[in-house]
Amino acid sequence: MSIDLQTVKKIASLSRISVTDAEAEAMVPELNNILGWVEQLGEVDVTGVQPMTAVIPNHQRLRDDVINDGDVRDKVLANAPQAEHGFFAVPKVIE
Amino acid sequence: MTNLTDLTVAEIRDGFRAGDFSAREVAEGFNANVAAAKALNAFIVETPEKALEAADAADKAKAAGETLGALAGVPIGMKDLFCTQGVQTTAASHMLEGFVPTYESTVSGKLWAAGAGMLGKLNLDQFAMGSSNETSYYGNVISPWRRGGGDNAALAPGGSSGGSSSAISARLCPAATGTDTGGSIRQPAAFTGISGIKPTYGRCSRWGIVAFASSLDQAGPMARTVRDNAILLEVMSGFDPKDSTSLDLAVPQWEANLSSDLKGKKVGIPKEYRPDGLNEEISAMWDRGIAWLKDAGAEVVEVSLPHTKYALPTYYIIAPAEASSNLARYDGVRYGQRDLPDGAGLQDMYAATRAAGFGPEVKRRIMIGTYVLSAGFYDAYYTQAQKVRALIARDFEQAFEKCDLLLTPTAPSASFALGEKQADPLAMYLNDVFTVPASLAGLPAMAVPGGLDSAGLPIGLQIIGKALDEQTVLNAALAIEERSGFTARPDKWW
């Protein structure tokens, strides 16, 4: 299947990337080329095959439920574009 | 006197210990080479003071008779995908311009703890997405290699670890870190006539490495010799509780166990890696590699990896899907750039920040990933790709019932000119056709130089091993290294 301008704009919106109309139009053939190419996977017979979840067998580890990190507020905020009163600051949100 | 910047990691380590030269002399030599090589654009940030600081510490420790770390006296380059405390870490993006981590990645921390010094942060493809180093926000990295015959076209150092490959082959550093998601250590190594190994997935901690595709990302060393790779990999590997996919296994003594005697080993030659139209020089190099491994005592058998042709399309679903998720963190709130248009709300800020902070290839991959994970398409694309990935891994398992390692080309061509493949993303993706399958299966794989092509450019061979069997991979690479007699280096023009 091929994707159109509307779909590209929707993907951009889901991706939280603003695009101009010209950018979106340029992406239509690009994304169609790539998606058209990956669609060949549909021809592979995967009957009875479980999707891979881990390349190397490993087990999830448990650790004691204790505080082993924290008290680093200033470090956490050190690279924030805007930090105020010990918090990340963002534009006003009115839902 | 020996030119210290021509020495390998092992030679620097041993010469420093023997008192042939001081660590400071070595660091000063490399600092000077780095400072004189701006034309290659291999570094985003240079840290000569860090290299000197580590060198002085090594000299002082030696004078005091203290125990020296495995890399005492050795300066290295650090790919700018590893978070380094107090030193800007950008992943070659505008998004992270000015980001100064308050912590150190596990792998870089291990290298510093072993005594290595940092020459600087190496350029790369933006967020490690690319095969030619043309997607960096900080400009293209130029390969030190040129085609013969007065052709001065700027060539690609490969990607994404192109700053690393360019810097090592130009003698700006004796070794560097790389990361490999679909070939980002091996293809640049092949393009520049050096060696590099991607270990088994889980050997090196991913903690503190800017994430691209977490089920594929693996750190590894790049250097001019197989021995140097073994030395660095031993330091970089090891269990890390901070990475949930880190393998809780002891680190083998790869350097001490190096042996190019391959008697009793079976080398598989996957027939699907020799498609019609394979570059003749690449094909001929592969044949030479087969002969070299036979000469080293190995037996050669043909094997089949029937799902090889599906590896790239599988990769270009899984890697963008994981990238779209991983890169969601760049929201202009916690770190990195923020673009806040007048009167914009939070959602507008996200979209404007990400539009300004990401380059075209990164946006393309985030959007493909978003699409293949979106409602209604998830099963057709992502689940199908994860199933095909399981089949690709099974192909390797079945092949390894008949052999101990695989020998293949590393890349389908030698280096190409910058700009040559930029127009068509798909043509660029095809560069990784021989490296991606091992990545999807999490297997150790190494690039080692084989020789020069008719244009005078390096071409390499790839060795793929069983999971956790880096030793056999290194040993086979050593056997090739000893027989290829590859000593070519680029003529200095920069």
UniProtKB/TrEMBL annotation, chain A:
Give the catalytic activity.
L-aspartyl-tRNA(Asn) + L-glutamine + ATP + H2O = L-asparaginyl-tRNA(Asn) + L-glutamate + ADP + phosphate + 2 H(+); L-glutamyl-tRNA(Gln) + L-glutamine + ATP + H2O = L-glutaminyl-tRNA(Gln) + L-glutamate + ADP + phosphate + H(+)
Query: What are the protein's UniProt keywords?
Result: ATP-binding, Ligase, Nucleotide-binding, Protein biosynthesis
The EC code for this enzyme is 6.3.5.-
Give the main EC class: ligase
- At the top level, the lineage of the source is Bacteria
Self-association and partners: Heterotrimer of A, B and C subunits.
Family membership = Belongs to the GatC family.
The entry's function note states: Allows the formation of correctly charged Asn-tRNA(Asn) or Gln-tRNA(Gln) through the transamidation of misacylated Asp-tRNA(Asn) or Glu-tRNA(Gln) in organisms which lack either or both of asparaginyl-tRNA or glutaminyl-tRNA synthetases. The reaction takes place in the presence of glutamine and ATP through an activated phospho-Asp-tRNA(Asn) or phospho-Glu-tRNA(Gln).
Q: What's the name of the protein? A: Aspartyl/glutamyl-tRNA(Asn/Gln) amidotransferase subunit C
Q: Which organism is it from?
A: Sphingobium rhizovicinum
User: Lineage, please?
Assistant: Bacteria, Pseudomonadati, Pseudomonadota, Alphaproteobacteria, Sphingomonadales
